[in-house]
Amino acid sequence: MSDDNTIDYYLKTAWQSAANKYNQIAGRFGITQATGYVLINIHREGTPVSQIANLLGVKTTSLSRILNNLEGLGLIYRETNSADKRSVKVFLTELGKEKRERAKDVVRKFNAYLDEHLSDEERAATIHTLKRINQLATQYKPEQ
């Protein structure tokens, strides 16, 4: 089987094209696609570090460098739970909120562009297929 006819090849290249486009646009606002993704997913009431780690698919310890960078840029701040010192929530600063709104706007515009160029049937079929692939990938148990 050739690499260019596997489902995962097309998933990877499609996502890489979207991520590259997001990075080009985000760079104009002084952030990256990954930064925008984190900012979009930090809620008003704060978001636990563990939740952000799960969202990004990284370990909490690996997330520390990313959060330190965002904190250094003045986009976030962290608060430790006084009752449970192990629990830390991340909040957006005013600048972080501003960058989040820009990131949301970029995502909205890109999705509007996709919607303009895909029929309702293509859009529905793509979403259905991607959900199914996600489900199958989660269920997959390779033989030893």
From TrEMBL:
GO terms for molecular function: DNA binding; DNA-binding transcription factor activity. One of its GO terms (biological process) is response to stress. Pfam families: MarR_2. Keywords: DNA-binding, Transcription, Transcription regulation. Gene3D superfamilies: Winged helix-like DNA-binding domain superfamily/Winged helix DNA-binding domain (1.10.10.10). Residues 4-135 form the HTH marR-type domain. It comes from the Bacteria. This is MarR family transcriptional regulator.
